[in-house]
């Protein structure tokens, strides 16, 4: 509807036509004998005025185009690829879906990118999203039919340092010795600044300068903060200057060990995104995600340049 404001461009033209300039009058000695005549005014169009008029019209047209959020559909069939997707698997999916000649775009969030830039695609364009795509909270809605083919990526390898200071160290080490997978746990007997987890199961207090993100405390006498700590699901916890404190004891069986490890991973580390299942998303007339025109940034830069040029020409025309 903002395009209906285009008649506003007539305002600077009308205003420029109303500008008048008085004719220059020179006093003459014999002018006293001439009949009195009022000075005449005439409309004068100079090249600076015409250029200024053009710039002002372009400035208004640019503002209207920005408000109208203009977008020119120019993209055809496209494959949106998540980073780190296996090349061989991607080629098979592209061939099976019939997108062999389609363009490929690699973006971090394919579904989010498509929601923001969907108006760049033509109405007849086909879209394929492939790779490790996290499952959104709500089912996305697009104006185009989207073929979603996903492949869960393996967990990246990581190393975590655990320090065990306890007289029951063998019982604690059994918990980490049973773990297998991309996460590697390095268990040491000495705690340092690199330790992500410190298991402190002795009565002596730790050194004053020792800090860690998480402590498992087996003897509460070493940490007075745990004496009045809150209890949730049978586990007492408290925050201190050394880090977060959990009251814990060596697991007696496999079930207790699994529960302790899962609680640690769930509460202390960011959750791993769940990969969305492969599916076909039908076209919808309702789009809940915000859409922005691809020319918005270009229009903003053009408006800034036109405004600066308009101010320069306006100052020059007054001199």
UniProtKB/TrEMBL annotation:
<dbReference type="InterPro" id="IPR011933">
    <property type="entry name" value="Double_TM_dom"/>
</dbReference>
<protein>
    <recommendedName>
        <fullName>Aerotolerance regulator N-terminal domain-containing protein</fullName>
    </recommendedName>
</protein>
<dbReference type="InterPro" id="IPR024163">
    <property type="entry name" value="Aerotolerance_reg_N"/>
</dbReference>
<feature type="domain" description="Aerotolerance regulator N-terminal">
    <location>
        <begin position="3"/>
        <end position="68"/>
    </location>
</feature>
<keyword id="KW-0472">Membrane</keyword>
<feature type="transmembrane region" description="Helical">
    <location>
        <begin position="51"/>
        <end position="74"/>
    </location>
</feature>
<keyword id="KW-1133">Transmembrane helix</keyword>
<keyword id="KW-0812">Transmembrane</keyword>
<dbReference type="Pfam" id="PF07584">
    <property type="entry name" value="BatA"/>
</dbReference>
């Amino acid at each position: 509807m903002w395009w209906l404001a285009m008649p506003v461009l007539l305002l600077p033209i009308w205003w420029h036509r109303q500008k008048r300039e008085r004719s220059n009058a020179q006093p003459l000695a014999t002018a006293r004998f001439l009949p009195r005549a009022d000075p005449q005014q005439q409309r004068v169009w100079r090249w600076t005025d015409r250029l200024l008029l053009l710039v002002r019209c372009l400035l208004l047209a640019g503002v209207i185009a920005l408000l109208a959020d203009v977008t020119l559909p120019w993209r055809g069939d496209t494959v949106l690829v998540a980073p780190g997707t296996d090349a061989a698997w991607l080629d098979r999916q592209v061939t099976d879906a019939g997108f062999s000649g389609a363009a490929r775009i690699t973006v971090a969030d394919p579904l989010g990118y498509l929601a923001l830039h969907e108006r760049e695609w033509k109405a007849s364009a086909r879209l394929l999203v492939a790779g490790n795509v996290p499952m959104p909270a709500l089912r996305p809605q697009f104006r185009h039919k989207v073929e979603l083919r996903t492949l869960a990526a393996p967990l990246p390898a990581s190393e975590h340092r655990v320090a065990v200071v306890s007289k029951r160290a063998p019982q604690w080490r059994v918990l980490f010795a049973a773990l297998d997978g991309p996460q590697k746990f390095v268990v040491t007997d000495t705690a340092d600044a690199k330790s992500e987890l410190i298991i402190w199961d002795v009565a002596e207090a730790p050194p004053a300068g020792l800090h860690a993100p998480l402590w498992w405390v087996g003897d509460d006498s070493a940490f007075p903060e745990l004496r009045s700590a809150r209890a949730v699901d049978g586990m007492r916890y408290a925050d201190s200057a050394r880090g977060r404190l959990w009251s814990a004891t060596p697991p007696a069986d496999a079930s207790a060990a699994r529960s302790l490890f899962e609680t640690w991973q769930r509460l202390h580390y960011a959750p791993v995104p769940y990969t969305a299942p492969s599916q076909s998303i039908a076209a919808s007339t309702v789009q809940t995600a915000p859409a922005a025109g691809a020319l918005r940034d270009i229009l903003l830069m053009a408006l800034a340049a036109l405004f600066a040029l308009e101010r320069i020409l306006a100052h020059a025309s007054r001199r």
